[in-house]
Design a protein that fits this description.
Blueprint lengths: L1 E2 L5 H9 L3 E5 L6 H4 L23 H18 L4 H11 L5 H5 L2 E6 L15 E3 L10
Helix pairs in contact: 1-4
């Protein structure tokens, strides 16, 4: 099932039919596109979204980075609450957001790794930068 995991219908369908899922996406705002495939994401040198830190952080910026990482799933879960309820009803078991996204076969990430901070990724994550790039006017 080729789907965008932001909308949980495709992930739910893939789990229900026991089919492999291929996620085609730009990224989750809560960094879930690295947490779900269980990528190492060391807080000491990978800044979180919306912190505006660089990869060379001071001690206080690292503390801020750790707090933002701790709070990320807290502000992401309410956004997907209705979808998780629906998925739990369809799959007839309690599921979490990570339960739906963990079994993905391939993650097609629509950003270029050159513009991102260096980080370890799993073998099933493929960067396909350059898609949907329009020149600004």
């Amino acid at each position: 099932v080729l789907t965008d995991p932001i909308i949980l219908c495709g992930a739910t369908l893939a789990n229900y039919l026991s089919l492999p899922a291929v996620f085609f996406m730009r990224g989750f705002p809560c960094n879930l596109h690295y947490k779900a495939p269980q990528c190492p994401s060391p807080l000491s040198y990978i800044p979180r979204l919306f912190t505006f830190n660089s990869d060379q952080m001071t001690f206080f910026q690292r503390v801020e980075n750790a707090l933002v990482d701790f709070l990320e799933l807290g502000y992401c879960n309410p956004f997907y609450e209705e979808g998780i309820k629906f998925s739990s009803e369809v799959l007839q078991r309690d599921v979490s957001l990570q339960d739906l996204l963990n079994p993905a076969s391939i993650w097609l990430l629509r950003f270029d790794f050159v513009f991102e901070y260096v980080r370890p990724v799993m073998p099933n994550m493929v960067f396909i930068g350059g898609i949907n790039c329009a020149q600004k006017k």
